[in-house]
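Ticket #4471: structure export looks truncated?
Reporter: QA, pipeline team
Priority: medium

Steps to reproduce: submit the single chain below to the structure queue and open the exported record.
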Amino acid sequence: MAKGAQHGTFWTHNDSGGRPELYLFAPDGKLLDTKAVPDARNVDWEDLTQDTAGNFYIGDFGNNNLNRKTLDIYKYNPQQARTERITFRYAGQPVDCEAFFHHRDSLFLFSKNQGKDNWVKMYRLPVQKGEHSLVPSDSIRINSPVTSAAISPDGKTFALLTYGKVLLFETAGGNVDFSKPMGCFRFSRKQTEAIEFLNNTDMVMTNEQGDVYRTTFR
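Actual output as written to the record:
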């Protein structure tokens, strides 16, 4: 999910097998706009983020069966109607990922945590087209699958969404890692799959059932 230009609006997309399109919604769930993403296909789109220049990054990296060896992120510029592909693979065993965000010319990816050890791993990917090999930069134990991630506009707080909670972390001196947890709050609203900051304290979330929720933290 990514924040729209108008107050309270947000961009989102369909899951695996959907059209390669982005959809702009109002806070009440009304569809406002649709943008087709050229030179892209939706194998298993999982998350969406945006940089300060207005480029969208679409994570085509769903890997529930762990049978995809090479994954893609589409960098889409709506003003130029141009799409670049960033290709990557994980060094070592395959990983399922549904969550990422853009920060300071890098993309930060978070594994879903479907294993028995409950470790969520963080990966840092440079925003450069081509092929990349990723190794974990940090890890933390979370006892629920991570389904989306977002960072606040001021870059001081990032959030991980699970099926039951939202976990908040402070960026440590501008570094994105798990060293400064800020706490969490329960958010059991069916199968929540997307989260985004509307500003530095307000977030919007959606679930697979089509519901939209807004919450504030202090």
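Status: closed, not a bug. The export was complete when the record was re-opened. Leaving a note from the reviewer for reference: The mean pLDDT is 91.
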